[in-house]
Amino acid sequence: MPLAAPPFSPPAPPIYQAGTLTYTKEALYRLFFWLLVGDLVFTLVGQLELRMFPVFLKQEGASDKAIAIMASSIPAVMRFFFNPIVNYQSDRKRSPRGRRIPYILWAAPGVALFLALIPFTSEISSSLLRIHWLSLWLAKVPLAPAILIFGLLAMLYQAFQLVVSPTYFCLLRDVVPTSHLGRFMSLFRMVGAFATFGFNYWLFGLAGHHAGYVFAGIGAANFLGFFAMCLFVREQAYPSTEEKPRLGENPARWPVARACFNFAAESFSPPLYWWIYVTRLLIYAAIPVASFLIFFAQREIGISLDVTGKILAWPSFCWIVLAYPIGLMIDRRGPIPVLAVSLAILSASCLGSFFFITGETSFFICTLITGTAVWVVSLAQVLLSQQLFHPARMGQLSSANILLQSAVIALVTSPATGWFLDLMRGTTFHLTLPLIGPLSIGPYRFIYLILAMLFSFSLLGTLRVRHYWQKQGGPGNYAPPALKPD
Questions:
Q1: 192-226, pLDDT tens digit by residue?
Q2: Predicted local distance difference test score (pLDDT) of residue 247
Q3: I want to staple 306 with a disulfide (CB 3.0 to 4.6 A). Which of 56, 174, 205, 444 is the partner?
Q4: Is the separation of the CB atoms in 285 and 454 below 8 Å?
Q5: Residue among 209, 213, 66, 212 nearest 148 (CA)
């Protein structure tokens, strides 16, 4: 008598893990969706800050140096002080809602409120000037009242945004499985590119005429998007972080000093981390410098704000097509080779832009090349830290990186760029180049040379990261530097 065939049982669905979290494929899709909702609104807020803050200050008569200080240096100083505290505490926080989500829920309403108030700077300053004693005090301040009020509102906005931003990026590393991190980050940057395209193509010009509606709408979307994300995303169970006192030490004494010692010892001892910091620092230092290219388009080529926004939007569209294949490549080959190649292309394209841009068409072509390369660099440098930083100290190491970024941006690159542009104001050089013809070189064109220099030095840093990454095990065997004992 033949044996009965065993009953057919379908194969178990694949399970993906991130720490103590487990996901089916459907659950992973849901996780990606809600995290990407957060990315969508986060990118819109970032574009609003990057594109419109300098425009507002210029409309109020601020100099380029004042714009660099208020739009770049002051936020960098705030990051210098805020990020270490927020990230150190969030790494060690334990609550029923996790270690990152409570910070986002607390700070997102403040971001929305002060972002919505910024377009009404002139109205607020006019109302304050009607108060006699306050108008006398404001008259003694060497800044126009509208610029002063803008700075105050922007600082309050930054105070809350500097809580949301680092905890959100650390949350990604905590909840996304490592096996899918590259693909997720490519989707992450695709959504960011879509939001950037939409803002630059449709909202940038609109924000110049209806700023109140645009700022309030994006602020409200930011709050609702992050609230929904925090509602539907669950964090893992983290191991206890109770710090053991050293031999002979009273655990109640010097808690701040002990926290600073742990922070410095873990963050600044390994040379691998130092070179990651340098590589990423130079990339982020280029962001506020590049914001002056809006004035290059307007004042030296004669392109309107609306057309400039549409041109700046197209690299985002190209990136939407390239993002997922680049993410797959990073999952297979790692972020270091992709970052090195894209930085080399970006350095060369910025240098070429200095010489080749003569009008709207050449500005569009050069912006398409440099802008698309910037998206690749942006994805690869984020994954560099996500994959090489120790996962238990992701927030702390990110804040150490930001400490150095903030110091350099606040004290060196931003004020130096603003000072240089003010010094060169009204100066124009004329060259005739083979195959190109006459070239007018005003102060804002030099931004391309500054960017080429920053990206070239970042490429050298990437090569040093590769050297120390190989010493830590390299492909397939990498282990992050060990944590110092508490």
A1: 888 888 888 888 777 767 888 889 999 999 999 99
A2: 47
A3: 205
A4: yes
A5: 66
Q: Which among 349, 406, 405 is positioned nearest to 374, based on CA atoms?
A: 349
Intervals of the chain under pLDDT 50: 1, 246-247, 250-253, 486
How many domains does the chain fold into? Answer: 1
Residue 254 lies in a domain: no
pLDDT one-digit tens code per residue, 462-473: 999 999 999 999
Half-sphere CA count of 468, side-chain side, radius 13 A: 17
Q: pTM (2 decimals)? A: 0.72
Q: State the residue range of the domain holding 315.
A: 18-237+263-471
Query: Does residue 365 belong to any structural domain of this protein?
Result: yes
Report the CATH number that the domain containing residue 227 is assigned in CATH.
1.20.1250.20
- Distance, in Å, from the CA atom of 445 to the CA atom of 104, rounded to the nearest integer, reads 39
Measured in whole angstroms, how far is the alpha carbon of residue 330 from the centre of its chain? 19
- CB under 8 A, 24+ apart: contacts of 146-151: 146/60, 146/121, 146/122, 147/57, 147/60, 147/61, 147/62, 147/66, 147/70, 149/121, 149/124, 149/125, 150/56, 150/57, 150/60, 150/70, 150/118, 150/121, 151/70, 151/74
